[in-house]
């Protein structure tokens, strides 16, 4: 059955334009429509522009109450299927211990691995759904979700099955990534675990078609560049596209590795080198920046967003939502940090939080902008224009959220 919807009484529509990631100066060129409407047909955007009432009779009318429409946010880096929280570690960090010190004393990722292994698949499904609802209320319509707190065949598969099951009922479209190479499990350090990822975990994930991407944490405290490359090449051979946690706590040459492997994204990049910036600028690998992680770790060090954009890289923004280093689902918070701390413009941040995130997930032809032909993933803000997304900080301006043309969240 065909359905149609007219979204009218909009104060503004603000959106990047395109079906691929935008790089450099193009990130700033968003389209701003005043006095316009959006027509949605069968879950897709059919028309954006001035109202032409006589042209097409539309059965359903949606009053946007002078709000602003922006594309649904695309959060292309999250660690959603976890169990247990780490608020006491957070409190220790507030007393002066560092994230890496806590991780070295059996806290950090290892404590979430213990809680996640002890959880049932259904508990993880419930956790993912609860977080997806919060994300949706904050305007996210598509999110990547990683495993990486199982670190063995059974528990990595359990996390990925939980993402798949949650996706059936989730207001947010979920895209799964296998991050078995997140850390070494306590029972198997070094090459033995890398062998297990390559010989057992990735083949099992691929057999059940549980992931689209394969990720690895290349860092002095985690996997070496060589180990990371081995895992990502093994994933690639099984049809899983690489993404990479790169240069988060030290320059590990991760950005250049991501570019060499033609990875979908290189993420974090707080310690990226000049060489890494040049490599990403020349590549189609999206530089995925996660400023909420710097903020939450109380670091003065943010990724060099200006240098990356000015060099011509495709830059996206994500939450990194996880219980240790970034406990937030809010993409507008991330945009506020991107502008106020990393000196991105509001227009660049909007492109980074929508179309460029979609590009890193291979979905830029489907979502990430308000244009005829794309899925109707649209957020209506309680704001007269898009600048309020950053200007009016610390509150949730999201009023209504459409995914595939259906209302999935109504915040106020
Ligand atoms: O992206 N870098 C590694 N992984 C996460 C942190 C995960 C955790 O602390 O549980 C990150 O920051
Ligand atoms: Fe992460």
Give an account of the 3D structure:
- This protein is an alpha/beta fold and 412 residues long.
- The chain folds into two domains: 111 residues, Urease, subunit C, domain 1; 287 residues, Alpha-Beta Barrel (TIM Barrel), CATH 3.20.20.140.
- Helices cover 34% and strands 21% of the residues.
- The strands form three sheets. An eight-stranded parallel sheet has the order 8-9-10-11-12-13-14-15. It has a six-stranded mixed sheet with strand order 3-2-7-16-17-18, with helices on one face. The chain has a four-stranded mixed sheet with strand order 5-4-1-6, with no helix packed on it.
- Helix 8 runs parallel beside helix 9, helix 9 crosses helix 11 and helix 12 runs antiparallel to helix 13.
- The longest helix is centred in the N-terminal third of the chain and has 17 residues.
- The chain is globular and about 65 Å long.
- The protein starts with a strand and ends with a strand.
- The chain binds N-(iminomethyl)-L-glutamic acid and fe (iii) ion (FE).
- N-(iminomethyl)-L-glutamic acid binds next to helix 3.
List keywords for this structure.
alpha/beta; Urease, subunit C, domain 1; TIM Barrel; 8-stranded parallel sheet; 21% strand; globular; binds N-(iminomethyl)-L-glutamic acid; binds fe (iii) ion
What is the mean pLDDT? Answer: 96
Q: What is the architecture of the largest domain at the second tier of CATH?
A: Alpha-Beta Barrel
Beta fraction of the residues? 15-25%
What's the end-to-end separation, in Å? 30 Å
**CATH domain topology of the largest domain:** TIM Barrel
Quickly count the helices.
Answer: 15
Return the CATH class of the largest domain. Alpha Beta
What's the number of extended β-strand segments? 18
CATH superfamily of the largest domain: Metal-dependent hydrolases
């Amino acid at each position: 059955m065909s359905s149609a919807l007219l979204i009218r009484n909009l104060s503004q529509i603000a959106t990047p334009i395109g079906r691929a990631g935008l790089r450099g100066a193009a990130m700033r060129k968003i389209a701003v429509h005043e006095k316009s409407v959006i027509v949605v047909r069968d879950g897709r955007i059919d028309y954006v522009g001035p109202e032409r009432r006589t042209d097409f009779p539309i059965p359903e009318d949606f009053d946007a109450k002078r709000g602003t429409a922006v594309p649904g946010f695309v959060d292309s880096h999250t660690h959603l299927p976890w169990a247990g929280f780490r608020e006491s570690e957070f409190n220790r960090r507030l007393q002066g211990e560092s994230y890496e010190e806590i991780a070295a004393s059996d806290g950090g990722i290892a404590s979430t691995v213990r809680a996640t292994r002890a959880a049932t698949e259904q508990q993880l499904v419930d956790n993912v759904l609860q977080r997806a609802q919060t994300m949706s209320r904050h305007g996210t319509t598509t999110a990547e979700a990683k495993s990486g707190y199982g670190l063995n065949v059974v528990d990595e598969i359990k996390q990925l099955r939980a993402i798949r099951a949650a996706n059936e009922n989730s207001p947010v479209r979920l895209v799964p990534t296998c991050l078995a190479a997140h850390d070494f499990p306590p029972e198997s350090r070094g090459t033995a675990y890398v062998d297990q990822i390559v010989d057992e975990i990735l083949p099992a994930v691929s057999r059940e078609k549980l992931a689209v991407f394969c990720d690895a944490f290349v860092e002095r405290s985690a996997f070496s560049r060589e180990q990371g490359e081995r895992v990502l090449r093994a994933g690639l051979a099984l049809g899983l596209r690489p993404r990479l946690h790169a240069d988060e706590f030290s320059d590990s040459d991760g950005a250049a590795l991501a570019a060499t492997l033609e990875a979908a994204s290189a993420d974090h990049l707080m310690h990226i080198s000049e060489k890494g910036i040049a490599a990403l600028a020349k590549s189609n690998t999206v530089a995925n920046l996660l400023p909420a992680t710097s903020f939450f770790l109380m670091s003065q060090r943010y990724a060099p967003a200006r240098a990356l954009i000015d060099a011509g890289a495709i830059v996206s923004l994500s939450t990194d939502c996880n219980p240790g280093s970034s406990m937030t689902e809010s993409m507008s918070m991330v945009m506020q940090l991107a502008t106020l701390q990393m000196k991105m413009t509001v227009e660049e941040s909007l492109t980074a939080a929508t179309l460029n995130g979609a590009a890193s997930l291979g979905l830029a032809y489907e979502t990430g902008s308000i244009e005829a032909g794309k899925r109707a993933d649209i957020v209506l803000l309680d704001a007269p224009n898009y600048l309020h997304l950053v200007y009016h900080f610390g509150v949730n301006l999201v009023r209504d959220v459409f995914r595939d043309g259906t209302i999935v969240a109504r915040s106020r």
